[in-house]
Structures are given as structure tokens and as C-alpha cells.
Amino acid sequence: MASPLYLTMLAGPVEAFPVPKPLVDALSSVEVTESATGRSGFQLTFTLADDSILQTFFLLAAGSPLPVLRVILLVTFAGLPQVIMDGVILHHEVVPDAMQGSSKLVVTGEDLTALMGLIDFSGLPYPGMSPDLRVETILAKYAAFGVVPAVIPVPAPDIQVPIDRTPSQKKTDLEYIQHLADEVGYVFYLTPGPLPGMSEAYWGPQVRVGIPQPALNVNLDSWTNVESLHFRYQPQTSVTPLVFLQDEFSKVVIPLPIPPVTPFNPPLGVVVPLPQKVEQMTSTAKLPVAQALMKGMARSVQTADVVTGEGSLDVLRYGQPLRARSLVGVRGAGVAFDGMHFVDSATHRLKPGEYKQSFVLKRNALIADTPLVPAMPY
Fold first, then answer.
1. How many of the other CB atoms lie within 10 Å of CB of 104?
2. Distance between CA 85 and CA 93 in Å, rounded?
3. How far is CA 203 from the centre of its chain?
4. Boundaries of every domain in the chain
């Protein structure tokens, strides 16, 4: 019976193409980490022989002054292809193995946000542009790499009159985009796919809604599809952000607490613990009302997760790769932890004939708020 799992590797300076078969044969392991809040990265390990084609590959990658050797990893599981990484190589390491008479070439890289952190564009003006338009303008430079912007407009943009003041960029594209996201309570990340050579650049609020992935089953005998899964309950981490709204005419400052449950962070359980701390966000008094509220809600989402789940699974048994930045159901973990969870990170580890993952789940409540979770893919 043919294996339902295939790994395709593409590489190139800007456009990536299938790599030669000797290079694929030398690939011994792959590790890809997806994060809902930060950059995603990858590590490739090759067996390096003296007469291997990898010698040429290593020189081409290491000899370039800029890390523009692009790598795309495509996993085809049960006939369904998924892009799990689209990034660039940043670091190389050769590890000799005296016992086996060969060496290991370890290649480490990050997603395409690494390209956005190469050049300092400080001083570049953006006259009369709201933050979302500035982000779209910056991301347009990376269209050659298949980056497609998914930019959510700011509810209350602070558009300055060019004759009064023109906003200018600070530092690199990546740092400036992240700065603009922090200013309005947004997040920024790249999601590879859906087609090879494409990536979606999302700039907007952290949203925890959508179609859930197949349930993770634990302690269910033959239905169990995870190797391990344990949960921690930490109510002391939850914080109530206190934003300050200033009336435009009277200059009166009104404090407003932001609850842990917001439109972008709906309750994933029945019991939402009350936050044990209050955090004063005094800087919000200088912002428009909508921006102050968005910043408070973003801080609330960051601290509202009182439940953390960590585990591992075999993808061949689970039925498909588990992806970060989306929901997944849990069954068999007990009354307190069953139900929907948000996948905060997922690490893919591939070897010949093996595909395993470790993952981290987050939730802002206890006890499932739905009687059923999807057990099979949609």
C-alpha cells in the first residue's frame, strides 16, 4: 500500500522550483513551527557527504549577501496538499559525525517576514495615509514573492493633514508594520498558501472564530488520536485592562475596564474566571475612542487565556496536519477542559515514514459551551 504522506521541497532565489532528487534523498528530518503571535520558522537536516550535491547547495546559500534563498515545503497527506512553510534560509551549520564518516548540514530559516526586516527604510514618508493604507503600501513591495495583503481597516483612523504633519517610517518594514499593529491593537503574521508560492499577510485583530479542525481525542480507547495531552489552569494570568477615554471638549478622562470576553475573543467555555489584576493603560487617553478600545481589547485577548494545553500527536493517526491560528475541539479530557480551544502554536516534525506534531492550545474559560465538537474533517 502506497504511503499517504508526501513531502515536496521547492527552492530558488525568488521563484522556488522542485529541488533535485539527490537533495531530497539527503534530507533526513524537517521541523516547522507555526505561531499565532510571532514568526514561523523551519529547520532542515541533511546528510552531507563529500561528493554530495549539497556542497553546491550550501555554497550558493551561504555565499549570497542577502538571505534570499527561498524554501517552500509542501505536504500532501491523503491526497490533499498543504503548504506548511514558505520562507528564506538564514543560518547554516555543519555538524561532523566521526562515527558514521559523514556530516549533517542543518539549515535554519524563517517565513517571509525575514525579508521585511533586512533594510532600514527610516524616514520614508506616507502623506495623508491611515495606518492600514501604510501597511498595504509596504506589503506591495513583496508582491514578487507572492505575498497577498489581508489588511483590516482601522475603525477610527488618525489621518493627519500633510501640511501639518506627515508620518514617516521608523526602522525596517517589519518593525514598522508591527509598531502600527501595536498602536491599534492588531496583530501581524504570514500564513503560507493556499498555493505554493503564495502567502497571506494578515494585519488585523486577533480573531478566534471560524471552522474548527477535527477533535483531539484523549482517554477514548481506540478513538484516541493524540499521544499526549495535559492542561494547566492559571487564573492569575488574566488581567482587566483599564483604558482611559478623554472627552474632546471637557477634557474629562473616563476610565473604562475591558472584560476578558470581547467580540474578537468570544468565550470558549461556560465559566469565564474573573481577572485577578487590573492594568492601567494610561497612554490610551491620547488616542481616539475607537483606537483606545481596540488597544484595550487586544491586551485583554493577550492575557485572558487561563487554560493552556500542551500535547503531541501522530498525523498519520490524527488524519490531517493540525494548524495554528484556528480552533480545534477536545474530547475525553474531563468536564473542565473538553470543548473548543484555540491552537496557539503547532510544530511539525517529519522524518522518512513519520509525521508527528507538538502543539499548544489556549482557552479563556472552563467547561465546554457546546455539547458537540466535530470529530471528522468538514
1. 17
2. 20
3. 12
4. 5-115, 119-204, 235-303
| Cβ atoms 155, 294 nearer than 8 A | yes
- Domain 5-115 - what CATH class? mainly beta
Question: H-helix or E-strand containing 77?
Answer: strand 70-77
Q: Provide the pLDDT for residue 1.
A: 37
pLDDT in tens, 316-333: 899 899 999 999 999 999
Is the model more confident about 50 or about 307? 307
E strand or H helix at 308: strand 307-314
pLDDT band at 95 (very low <50, low <70, confident <90, very high): confident
Instruction: Report residue 196 as a C-alpha cell.
Output: 505554493
Residue type, 349: R
Q: Which residues are CB-contacts of 261 (< 8 A; sequence separation ≥ 6)?
A: 267, 272, 304, 364
pLDDT exceeding 90 applies to what percent of the chain?
A: 42
Closest CA to 301 of 372, 226, 374, 209: 209
Instruction: Express each pLDDT in 263-313 by its tens digit.
Output: 777 888 899 888 888 888 888 888 878 778 888 888 888 888 999 999 999
Q: 119-204 architecture in CATH?
A: 3-Layer(bab) Sandwich (3.55)
Query: Which residues are CB-contacts of 74 (< 8 A; sequence separation ≥ 6)?
Result: 7, 8, 9, 10, 81, 82, 83, 84, 196
